[in-house]
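Hi R.,

Here's the chain you asked about this morning:
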Amino acid sequence: MARRLVVASNRGPVSYARDAAGERVTRRGGGGLATALRPLVKHEDVTWIASAMTDEDRAVADEAGGEAFAEQARDGSVYRLRLVAQDPQAYEGFYNVVSNGTLWFLQHYLWGLAYEPTLGAELRRAWRDGYEAVNRAFADAVLAELEHADAAVCFHDYHLYLAPRFVRAARPGALLTHFVHIPWADADYWRTLPHELRVAVHEGLLANDVVGFHAERWRSNFVRVCEQLVGAEWDADDCVVRYAGRETRALVQPISIDVDEFDALRDDPAVLAEERLIVERRPELLVVRVDRTDPSKNIVRGFRAFALLLERYPELHGRVGMLALLDPSRQSLPEYAAYLGAIAVEARAVNDRFRRGDWWPIDLQIGDNFQQAVAAYKQFDVLLVNPICDGMNLVAKEGPVVNTRDGVVVLSENAGACAELGEWALPVNPFDLEDQAEALHRALTMPADERRRRAAAISAHVREHDIEGWIAAQLTEIERLADPAPRV
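And here is the predicted structure, written out as tokens:
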């Protein structure tokens, strides 16, 4: 019999809307995390707790009386969904001010500390009335589910750092895990947060039985920060952080992709139609990047590195082009809106400088078109993945699985994926334009047999270590924790 799980994340696997006829429709949930976690419902008795994101989500939550209700996954699996409707002002502080406006920037090293951040009363107010309030609402929803039946609780990501401590206070024996899907900054960067906030984050996570990360460097940072900021002790032999009379296992478990889904998408009619359009327009050599327009994705530097490639190697003029498929992200935040503008300005500058005739070096397309992204994955000669910092970066895994041209991956050494794929990708310093330009040139001129070997190795690794393996690792750890032997 499958173990009962409660999964808690800000975004859920589905959202609700009304179509043109006024009928309620169910849509695939937004965000990479919800997409990655969807296969969980095939394995376990799952109740998924998520924020009500849309007006129709809130209507559904209201109709359910705030309780969980049955929902069906695309494969027919049935799970329970509980939508937590938040006060709009509280959610604004939780989501835009604290989660994305502060924690995301901190954990991706996006602040230039000479000028930012400037923190004070606004952040503390958003923390108290927004982040803490929403985390308490999630904890209350978790506790309500635990009243129905015993379950393991799986928290996800930076939105819910405080909720485990609230649950632990009410249910000391609860089995709690938390997976952090973004980088963990070092102690000096965490010290930018006010003392009480940085302590609350770490005490919240240390209320879990397990905390998971995608890469060893993120776990190592977490452990050191716990030692330096809250006085925890690290037992490397048992992978345990000891704090306040409790033990928390800190594990490295790199997430992956649903390989079966991408195999099916390869020949999907919508993907094939998009691929035909790309083939009709593609130059001889195609560099592809697929990203959200997030400052952490380092898109502007990527364009500048491409310009340096064209400056140094004029023989590539007319032969190579970059297809940049970018999904607008968090445009309600001023930094994101400004970055989207900077992306457009940089692409225009590169094209104005180098274009000739019908050849435009950068084909910039802004929009959310998943089928087009998969089609581009199939056609790349080089996949540029150069984030400033990334917990994992699944683009580096998605592209090689469907690529048909023995494409080479140029991969930031600061992406979690580099720890897995760096042996076969071309690792680069995401701040070094020369390093990136030379890596692009090496990738574009690499002998066919070496390209084939590298591409095959990445594809084989991702196929062997897919999302099913990641989920199995999570469930195995939960079963280990659920052993009746006493736990601290």
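One quick note: The chain is about 45% helix and 20% strand.

Cheers,
M.
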